[in-house]
Write a structure and sequence with these properties.
The chain is of the alpha+beta class. Helices cover about 45% and strands about 15% of the residues.
């Protein structure tokens, strides 16, 4: 195990948000652990286009697996590179595209995830509609109606911001009322992506076929569960009452050791407790 506390000047800044974390960790793997070949798997927030261009490309023995963001997927769909006919036989397909030279794009569709996202979006839109109707009614009531375009706009912004569905509505506030409607184009554009995600990688098919690549990316969920366990669920790394950097590192290292023991206990007790465990830490 290895830990690093970046010298960011702020003790409370998350390591994951530190922009040079990727380059630093790759350097550590090469120099400290003497690894000649590395396949780095990271989510779309960590392995961004900028990080790939600045830290990962043109390094011998360094490869990656990550995912495209929604706007990048929408661009591929608009260009016809991704079509629903890809999923006629199975929910997995591999394509290439000139915007991603030397890379493989693995297009995946999860029907269960598609249904869940459609359901959640429908519920959020309906909840937002209810709030908009309440604001609209408040501008029309006889006693103390809401007046002023600025005030009405503020109420609308507050109502929609909490559910993050402002993009699904078009609205206009005047001094005496509110007019609103759905934005069907945006709703349809997002609905077209339901259940679809695209992995990008420069790992060759001889090293990882498309099924193995998808499995490697899905195993990030195990890492996320580990961090939840560390931060809140089981081990509670916070609050950290130490102030000196050395003591903070020692505190976090002890928590990591505790998780290491917990992981091995889960593996050993899986047959007894009926747990489904991953094959690696």
């Amino acid at each position: 195990m290895a830990l690093r506390r970046p010298d960011t000047g702020r003790n409370d800044r998350l390591v994951a948000a530190y922009p040079k974390t990727v380059a630093t960790q790759v350097k550590k793997l090469r120099e400290r652990f003497q690894l000649e070949r590395i396949i780095l798997v990271g989510d779309r927030g960590m392995l961004t286009q900028k990080r790939i261009e600045e830290d990962l490309q043109d390094h011998e023995g360094l490869q990656w697996v990550t995912a495209l963001r929604a706007p990048q997927i929408q661009a591929l769909m608009a260009q016809g590179a991704i079509q629903m006919s890809l999923f006629d036989e199975q929910n997995l397909a591999e394509i290439t595209h000139p915007d991603y030279p030397g890379e493989r794009l693995i297009v995946c569709r999860n029907p269960l995830l598609a249904s869940e996202r459609a359901r959640k979006r429908k519920e959020l839109i309906e909840a937002a509609e209810k709030k908009l109707k309440e604001i609209e009614a408040a501008t029309k009531r006889h006693r103390q109606p809401v007046r002023g375009a600025d005030k009405i706009s503020y109420l609308v912004g507050k109502a929609l911001a909490t559910s993050k569905v402002e993009k699904y509505f078009r609205w206009t506030a005047t001094d005496t009322g509110l007019n609103w409607e759905h934005n069907p184009e945006r709703i349809g554009r997002d609905a077209a992506l339901d259940g679809i995600y695209v992995l990008r990688t420069n790992v060759t098919v001889e090293q990882l076929d498309r099924e193995q690549t998808v499995l490697a990316y899905k195993r990030l969920a195990t890492v996320e569960r580990a961090f939840r366990s560390l931060k809140s669920v089981d081990l509670n790394v916070r609050p950290i009452h130490h102030r000196l950097p050395e003591r903070v590192r020692a505190h976090v290292f002890l928590v990591m050791l505790a998780y290491y023991v917990e992981w091995h206990m889960r593996q050993a007790l899986a047959p007894v407790l009926g747990l489904i465990c991953e094959g690696g830490l």
